[in-house]
Amino acid sequence: MSEYRVGVLGATGAVGSTILEVIAERDFPAAEVVPFASERSAGREIEWNGSVLRCRPLSPETIQDLDVVLSSAGGAVSSEWSPRFVEAGATVVDNTSFWRMYEDVPLVVAGVNDEAAEAHKGIVANPNCTTMVMMMALAPIHRAVGLERLVVSTYQAVSGTGQRAIEELRAQSHSVLHGEDPPAPQIYPHQIAFNVLPQVEVFKEGDDYTTEERKVMAETRKILGLDDGVAISATCARVPVVSGHSESVNVRTGEDLSPEECRALLADAEGVVVVDDPASASYPMAIAAAGRDDVLVGRIRRDPDQERTLNLWIAGDNLRKGAATNAVQVAELLIERNLLGG
Ligand SMILES: NC(=O)c1ccc[n+]([C@@H]2O[C@H](COP(=O)([O-])OP(=O)(O)OC[C@H]3O[C@@H](n4cnc5c(N)ncnc54)[C@H](OP(=O)(O)O)[C@@H]3O)[C@@H](O)[C@H]2O)c1
């Protein structure tokens, strides 16, 4: 098998460090792995798969000679450097939100819309973690009976904001548990420990939905190819959980789908595990989803008052299938379909 030179941009971050783990776990055909981070981390050593990698800063010289780059260093960095990596001959799988809604950039959930990757022009975007987790459960339903309306409420882990947010939750929790005043929030607008924030990301001027809620609605449409006739409404909340996003989704389908049929459909779906025996307190939970690639779906039941409508509870690891695993799977499918360097 050919081997590829792989760049990991944002290698010291929450997503980038998980990408490094996933590359090693999946035996990705990497001849070389090159970690990139900011100037602050230049030269920093990362232990990886029995060897030591040294972080590079971004410069016209350091970005040469790569086949594929898995990028997660934020939108501003990606906007500048992804095109430069492409110019230098690499194909970029980008985790940031910057490229996702560009018409000529495919937005790919591996296993859901793989064929979209065929049209890439150098950059393939990875969806937002909340959208990704939801797509794993909704795509099989959409394919079988169609979607008419989605009402989504999320309960999102702090690792979705990055490494510093995990530290903020830990520090605040430690203080509260020791009877001390928690340190002032730096990352979130309010204390996150022992709290729930009905705000994920920011409110743009004049919009009463957050940027995260807008992403969930817009990216869902793009990935599933839904037109404006399908109604989507999202409310995103941040909860004091380290890893694993949970989502409550109320789904009206085109044709009737019973809870039993829905369970059978999802049980057959690759990357989805049905956990649905409420009588034995068996349902998807963030701590059960954390650290694994499968998305868990349960609490599947009819809406008591709406026809052709089911309620689902979904949990998935935002850093694994929600970001890193999907990025690596997309890179694998680019290799399988001979789409690198396109
Ligand atoms: N966390 C998630 O669940 C998730 C899921 C999907 C997508 N994403 C997206 O992925 C991106 C990264 O998220 P994260 O949670 O991993 O953030 P993070 O933990 O804060 O990590 C950010 C990474 O970017 C690097 N970086 C920052 N500025 C840079 C620069 N000027 N040049 C080069 N590297 C730079 C950092 O390097 P230093 O260590 O040197 O600062 C670090 O490696 C974001 O765009 C986020 O929206 C995150």
Provide structural commentary.
This protein is α/β, with parallel strands linked by helices. Helices cover 30% and strands 23% of the residues. It has 8 helices and 13 strands. The chain has helices at residues 14-25, 75-87, 129-145, 163-177, 211-224, 259-267, 286-289, 320-336; strands spanning 4-9, 30-36, 45-48, 51-54, 68-71, 91-94, 123-125, 147-156, 231-238, 245-253, 272-274, 295-302, 309-316. The protein has a 6-stranded mixed sheet. The chain has a 5-stranded parallel sheet with strand order 2-1-5-6-7, with helices on both faces. Helix 1 (14-25) crosses helix 8 and helix 3 packs parallel to helix 5. The longest helix has 17 residues, at 129-145. It is globular and about 60 Å long. The two termini are 20 Å apart. Residues 10-16, 37-38, 40-41, 58, 72-75, 77, 95-97, 129, 159-160, 162-163, 318-319, 322-323 line the site of NADP nicotinamide-adenine-dinucleotide phosphate (NAP).
Shape: globular
How many strand units? 13
Largest sheet: 6 strands, mixed
Rg is 20 Å
Ligands bound, unique = NADP nicotinamide-adenine-dinucleotide phosphate
What's the layout of helices and strands?
Layout lengths: L3 E6 L4 H12 L4 E7 L8 E4 L2 E4 L13 E4 L3 H13 L3 E4 L28 E3 L3 H17 L1 E10 L6 H15 L33 H14 L6 E8 L6 E9 L5 H9 L4 E3 L11 H4 L5 E8 L6 E8 L3 H17 L6
Parallel strand pairs: 1-2, 1-5, 5-6, 6-7, 8-9, 11-12
Antiparallel strand pairs: 3-4, 8-10, 10-13, 12-13
Helix pairs in contact: 1-8, 3-5
Bound molecules: NADP nicotinamide-adenine-dinucleotide phosphate.
NADP nicotinamide-adenine-dinucleotide phosphate (NAP) binds next to α1, α2 and α8.
